[in-house]
Amino acid sequence: MIIKPKVRGFVCVTAHPEGCAAHVQEWIDYVKAKGPIARGPKKVLVIGSSTGYGLASRIGAAFGSGAGTLGVFFERPSEEGRPATPGWYNTLAFTQAARAAGLYAKNINGDAFSADIKKQALDLIRADLGQVDLVVYSLASPRRTHPTTGVVHKSVLKPVGTSYTNKTVDTDKGIVSTVTIEPANEQEIADTTAVMGGEDWELWMNALSEAKLLAPGAQSVAYSYIGPEVTWAIYKNGTIGLAKNDLERAGKNIDSLLKLNGGGRAFISVNKALVTQASSAIPVVPLYISILYKIMKARGTHEGCMEQIQRLFATQMYGGQTPKFDESGRVRIDDWEMRPEIQQAVREIWPRVTTENLASETDIAGYRTEFLKLFGFGLAGVNYEAETEPHRPML
Ligand code: NAD
Q1: Which residues line ligand 1 (CB under 6 A)?
Q2: Arithmetic mean of pLDDT, 99-111
Q3: What CA–CA distances, in Å, run from 250 to 34, 180, 185, 209, 278?
């Protein structure tokens, strides 16, 4: 079939297999061009490995330091006549490239929150890798079925305490409007923490530790976001921010666990705001990202997921480097985003953006290009007019 983008609000319901493969190849090429990372990870478990920061972590480990990788993700497989979700095609492309390079790469598609998928992952590590020396926890999910209670928790993106009114953009239609979001109730706050907090990361790490599948000195990292004041009500101080506080709490427990395991460590890396499937669902944030991209591109400091993770591995975690922690014990690869002159420029542009000047005041064009790339559209060298087979079984 000929696959075209079908954008519905903040998702695209189609994905292009060759386009996703070309996107993955761009990231692989970037990592290879940067050269090998000395003393990098060798056996890596990535939880949430099929898109965004998790995919970048997997590519960075495999092609930056020759790591074997086990990827866990939750994607809709392709069917006859129906495309898969992009992470499926990304994973196929990654797996093909990794194996062609002689690297171990296996995949588990299923609910990482469940006991069954954890068991499958542990069994594979035991059988194939022996132990892992890096665990990347990069899940972004709207819901979690709790493995012991069976309760389905749904995360919400809401402010806490009082309602929040600010500008937002419909990235598809290019309309800037004002949105008011009512505060979350106690149940919604608890549910969001159950989904995006740290309990599941701890369950993974405790299970790996008890099964003796963590190599001495193994590290683990999970990703968070802080951002500028203009987004704090909906992010840092909102339901997702409280969940991230819980992720940090879990990170400290896991750090203690790993320290006892041959001097390893666990920490949170605070990453840059980027267009991913997860971030496009947050009100207000896409407008901020459109402004941020404009400013950072103009200054030559713009990075995507792959550049961010390559920098994290090469300058903080490996290559003879050690993490440089902030006052709260977090690594900050959002440092370029948070530079005072960048944030000052955002503050200047923010109040004057309207539907009419959106194209000139922001990089909405770049936002849309990046968004479509997530689904494999708009990549150079891909013939989008050609027939392609959407049904691609996993390797
Ligand atoms: P993403 O949507 O691109 O990726 C999410 C991944 O989680 C995918 O691989 C998906 O398959 C997997 N997943 C979701 N539910 C799952 C489940 N139940 N079982 C197994 N896998 C599941 O998201 P992202 O933006 O890369 O986010 C990853 C992490 O990075 C999150 O913790 C997010 O908060 C953080 N982060 C994102 C940004 C940003 O701007 N995008 C910035 C800083 C930090």
Answers
A1: 48-54, 72-75, 87, 111-113, 138-141, 223-225, 271, 273-274, 276-279
A2: 98
A3: 33, 32, 23, 15, 21
231 CA from centroid of ligand 1 (Å): 19
Q: Is there a catalytic annotation at residue 235? A: yes
Structure-block tokens of residue 213: 């599948």
Q: Which amino acid is present at 273?
A: A
pTM: 0.98
Distance 276 CA to ligand 1 centre (A): 8
Task: Output DSSP code: residue 79.
Answer: B
And the tokens for 91?
Answer: 């994973």
Instruction: Centre a 10 Å sphere on the Cβ of residue 282 and count the other Cβ atoms it contains.
Output: 20
Hey, what domains does the chain have and what are their CATH numbers? Answer: 7-149+190-282+302-334 (3.40.50.720)
Q: Report yes or no: 180 and 187 within 8 Å, Cβ to Cβ.
A: no
Residue-wise pLDDT for 19-47, tens only, equals 999 999 999 999 999 999 999 999 999 99
